[in-house]
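Progress note, sequence design subtask.
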């Protein structure tokens, strides 16, 4: 009966959820600047008669209290920020804000949670306990909106016994979802390195200390941290994506700047690797006559899905969608600030399939042509509501 009730409401509100997603998609805002998005969320909650409070400047917390006896609390989270990416042209719902795009599906997460809120508000007389809705800013930017929300009390008053989040996945077909218990997504740190030398004419290298050559040695040597120091059973990634040397064909610059990322799944190894990378880079630079400033900006911890909660959520998803529409997930080296929640309370972060090859919807997140098969919005709202209600014991 519960499943049928949820599915019926989800199908009824599907057109509205599509419109909501398109509105949010057309009006993206960067991390910690989501003022209009937050206002829109609060207006929609007001329409549903759901009380809310502001948090972390542009964040919104809301509570839906069931009318039956029950003291359980489940939190549902959606991130609301967009990325500094220019969207491809030609979409009727394309971004109206130049250089800003919902290229990671946060418009899907937000519209889905608003739809879930409508389902739960419609069923208040049929469940006990409390559902806490967390509309969180700044997932895409350090220190991560989740860390700020937690510091300001998002997981208190009332404290949830579980928190659940969903995220789009272009590798999974629309109509399906994916789960993984235990460690799922990597910790993610940002590396900012400045290699200093002595610039001069490229035809007179003997008079200079070439920071480009030093940098080349550092980049190559640091990969030994992954290939020769890390336990082969411990997934570890070290990548540099930006090199800036203000020289020319015949000009050796004074310094080179590097930016990169380090990711893994163990906090002790993470700390050790930071120290080893810094020591190695500084040592190489010094041995070659230069110097190196090696800065590690600590990012998100690794994300762990509570075993019991995730197994429960997966079982509920199989009930709601059919076992054939629930798939296994592999470890994912991307980072996600939902990990902060998973370090505080039982958490389950699952994936919503949005791929449709026939419609040409296959692009990865964080790309200008990213899009979704909106059919996924027919299940994203109902599934989250169903999982929450089942978890509360209804």
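Output:
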């Amino acid at each position: 009966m519960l499943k049928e009730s949820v599915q019926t409401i989800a199908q009824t509100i599907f057109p509205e959820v599509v419109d909501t997603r398109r509105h949010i998609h057309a009006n993206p805002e960067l991390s910690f600047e989501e003022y209009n998005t937050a206002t829109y969320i609060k207006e929609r909650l007001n329409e549903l008669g759901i009380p809310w409070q502001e948090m972390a400047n542009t964040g919104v917390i809301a509570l839906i209290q069931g009318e039956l006896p029950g003291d359980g609390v489940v939190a549902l989270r959606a991130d609301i920020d967009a990325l500094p990416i220019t969207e491809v042209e030609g979409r009727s719902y394309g971004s109206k804000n130049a250089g800003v795009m919902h290229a990671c599906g946060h418009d899907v997460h937000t519209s889905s949670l608003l739809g879930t809120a409508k389902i739960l508000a419609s069923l208040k007389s049929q469940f006990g306990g409390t559902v806490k809705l967390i509309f969180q800013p700044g997932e895409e930017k350090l220190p991560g909106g989740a860390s700020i929300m937690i510091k300001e009390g998002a997981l208190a008053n009332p404290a949830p016994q579980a928190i659940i989040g969903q995220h789009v996945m272009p590798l999974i077909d629309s109509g399906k979802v994916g789960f993984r218990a235990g460690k799922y997504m990597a910790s993610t740190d940002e590396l900012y390195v400045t290699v200093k030398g002595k610039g001069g004419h490229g035809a007179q290298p003997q008079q200079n200390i070439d920071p480009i050559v030093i940098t080349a040695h550092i980049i190559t040597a640091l990969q030994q941290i992954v290939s020769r120091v890390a336990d082969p059973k411990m997934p570890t990634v070290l990548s540099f994506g930006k090199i800036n040397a203000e020289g020319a064909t015949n000009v050796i610059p004074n310094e080179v700047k590097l930016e990169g990322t380090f990711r893994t799944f163990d906090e002790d190894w993470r700390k050790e690797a930071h120290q080893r990378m810094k020591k190695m880079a500084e040592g190489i630079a010094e041995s070659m006559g230069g110097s190196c400033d090696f800065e590690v900006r600590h990012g998100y911890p690794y994300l762990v899905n509570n075993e019991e909660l995730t197994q429960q959520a997966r079982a509920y998803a199989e009930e709601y969608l059919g076992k054939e529409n629930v798939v296994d997930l592999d470890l994912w080296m991307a980072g996600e600030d939902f990990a902060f929640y998973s370090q505080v309370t039982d958490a389950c972060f699952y994936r919503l399939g949005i791929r449709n090859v026939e419609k040409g919807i296959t692009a990865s997140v964080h790309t200008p042509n990213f899009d979704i098969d909106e059919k996924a919005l027919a299940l994203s709202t109902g599934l989250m509501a169903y999982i929450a209600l089942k978890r509360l014991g209804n």
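The CA atoms of residues 174 and 354 lie 4 Å apart. Work on this subtask will continue into the next period as scheduled.
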